[in-house]
Design brief:
The structure is a homotrimer. The first copy, chain A, is α/β, with parallel strands linked by helices. The first copy, chain A, has eleven helices and nine strands. Chain A folds into two domains: about 140 residues, Aspartate/ornithine carbamoyltransferase (Rossmann fold, 3-Layer(aba) Sandwich), CATH 3.40.50; about 150 residues, 3-Layer(aba) Sandwich (Rossmann fold). The first copy, chain A, starts with 15 loop residues before the first helix and ends with a helix. Chains A, B, C: Belongs to the aspartate/ornithine carbamoyltransferase superfamily. ATCase family.
């Protein structure tokens, strides 16, 4: 049995057994709390702190709900208001929070590697959970995507997964690849404008293409990424309409995928840019299941890290 | 018996029996929690989300206290920080929150009709509570004003109620008229500069005047509205001093009202503009009773909407 | 026995017995909650409101943790969002909060005397706790500093305490002097650039100097204050390097102090400006003990003020 985790900063190198254990635990917690309508006392008396240096109400709320449904207290450390703005070193902020006897710090930061920096400097028993760092990792997103796929298609080795959009700058894509590779997925295809694809050497196991029609062909899962509008300039595309024509998922393109292809998106959606309404709201969309699973996966992670 | 409410977006067309039931429940909850010094477990394990697109610490705090005193968890979804700022559609925000299994969404938005839009798109069992939309409705304010009046003057059919100020742009005034009309109030008088009065056709049951001295004559209740200073330009009045001379409630004017006339204001006060200190702090002021009743009324609404 | 406190706005004129009782209570609560890993129900059902007009995530979080570990609910009244911004009088904000039946208001404000103003206007049983007002007082900081010193050196009458930095504008320094004087400390030395020292008449019991080498000589405690960078202009010092050379605590200077001299700082640290890394992170640093004691002292204050 793989050892209990103390921190979760990335899914890279995490063995399949550890990932499966977290997904199993997510399902067990979902059932125990009756889909979020009942509170547990697994983490009663423990305190989780949200330390968000980048705005993300969606992810912060998901973590806050997860912690509260386990009976923990939650503190939102509003960083726009904080002494880090006054120039305090990150590790001084960390040590201050540790001295206050917090149990877990959920951190989001635009600088890649910040969660590892916190782990490196942590002195006490505090656990660090990465809620997204730079372009590098967003491990709970990788887990919730793996869980969503597993609920429909547990035969990972047979699956073709297409990830489309700005993969180069996407921590979601990276954590998805880590999770899916560990789960033994059959094939991962990357698709997007050349300027938004990662270096070929970063993911030798993935197939790269700029042609969405071929990338979606026979896919069992399509993960559409949000286009940051300021990235458009880096591409050859003149505007959002052109982006949608080349890389947007509409019903016509979805028909090229395998029957029952799961449509996924980490949100928030740019409707009409990377995804058409007919697909986002269609029968194959798993987008809201992803959101629901996000809470259960975060419960599982907090329960695993903070178990005594 | 009128059916249990699932949402509260407006008091318009709400029958007197439904309003009375909410007011009775507010009083019962006030007594059960010993005026807010004891917590109940009516909503233990439920989660209420505050979704405020307009700032209002006062109303948000009142809802937060109401939810907590019923034992619910509260999440503040700080919208300045949210993906709606990034251009997410409102119904996508709603569906995301529903997927996280929230029980109620308390919403304030500057666009009239936003709460109804949420109700129209709601897919799950979530309840929507309007905490103020545009110029249209602020139903818990209407309820707390009705409760405050009822505690002193339950004989609504005998009452003359004067509402003074910027009625045209006031959701408070509209919800007050809805509540008071349902309760069978004798007479409602509107008073303010012509530019700040609503169309005559909107409230045919009310008497309109620009002359405060006649409007206050014999009134049993005076509801003074906050003047948004940027509205002054629309009137013929040169400055705040002139506004106060024409539409401010001072002791001299209050003496023209009926004996024991109740003085009310939704807050925050512009002292010296729409109300004189001597009146705001005088024996007939019910302003702080309104604040206290606000918490109890919101408890009643949440308990009604979320009862299983 | 000194009477129970209802408010805590300053330590000035607080007798030693009252301070000792709070420190004893802090230690008792620390032990009762097992250093913050277990929640108590001392204040179950009570509500504490954080009313911060100045940003301070650190102090706000410490108060929030203290209140929650005693079982209280906490409301953060985000003042950037509040009607005070709309021009509501401070006492109207207070009365509104009182009408909502809050038990305690923790207030920080840049205007000296604001907590006393709240106490003067309080009508109900609400307790006011000063979390820092202007340059005047920060009583829980004074208490936590006294507790930190007492844990190592309970023989206050023998101690030489050196406070170094911008004392003139420091509420921390003032509350430290109040606490230490009440505890009967042997000698207090003030050190800093002339422009940042208070009037000589304000603290006749203290020794003033601009020479840090002599101020630190034989000191048992060194309290280093944060330099607000905008204060540099008031001094003769050209830059931060010059400040550090004159008033920074490094190993060389610490060697002039008494053996085992306690190194303290209220945080956040300006490393390399008022304190060297080797000292901040050295064996004599009590800085993180101060942070930990801050939570326990605030628990003691809230428990004392809100006890029934």
């Amino acid at each position: 049995m793989s050892p209990r985790l103390r921190h979760l900063t990335t899914l890279e190198h995490l063995p399949r057994a550890s990932i499966e254990r977290l997904l199993d635990r997510a399902i067990a917690l979902r059932d125990a709390c009756a889909h979020g309508t009942r509170k547990l006392d697994t983490l009663a008396g423990r305190t989780v702190l949200n330390l968000f240096f980048e705005p993300s109400t969606r992810t912060r709320t998901s973590f806050e709900l997860a912690a509260r449904r386990l009976g923990a207290d939650v503190i939102n450390f509003d960083i726009g208001f904080s002494s880090t703005a006054k120039g305090e070193a990150l590790y001084d902020t960390l040590h201050t929070l540790e001295a206050m006897h917090l149990d877990a710090i959920v951190v989001r930061h635009k600088v890649s590697g910040t969660p590892e920096e916190l782990v490196r400097h942590a002195m006490s028993g505090v656990s660090v959970v990465n809620a997204g760092d730079g372009n590098r990792a967003h491990p709970t997103q990788g887990l919730l995507d793996a869980l969503t796929i597993r609920q429909h298609r547990p035969d990972f080795e047979n699956l073709v997964v297409t990830i489309c959009g700005d993969i180069r700058h996407s921590r979601v894509a990276r954590s998805d690849v880590h999770a899916l590779s560990a789960m033994g997925v059959g094939e991962i295809r990357f698709c997007g404008p050349a300027a938004l694809l990662p270096e070929a050497s970063e993911f030798p196991q993935c197939r790269y293409t700029e042609d969405f029609d071929s990338a979606i062909e026979g896919a069992d899962v399509a993960i559409m990424l949000r286009l940051q509008k300021e990235r458009m300039a880096a591409t050859d595309l003149p505007d959002e309409g052109a982006y949608f024509r080349h890389y947007g998922l509409d019903a016509r393109r979805l028909a090229r995928a395998a029957k029952g292809c799961l449509v996924m998106h980490p949100g928030p959606l740019n409707r009409g840019i990377e995804i058409a309404n007919e697909v986002a709201d269609g029968a194959q969309s798993r987008i809201l299941e992803q959101v629901a699973n996000g809470v259960f996966v975060r419960m599982a992670v907090l329960a695993e890290l903070l178990a005594r």
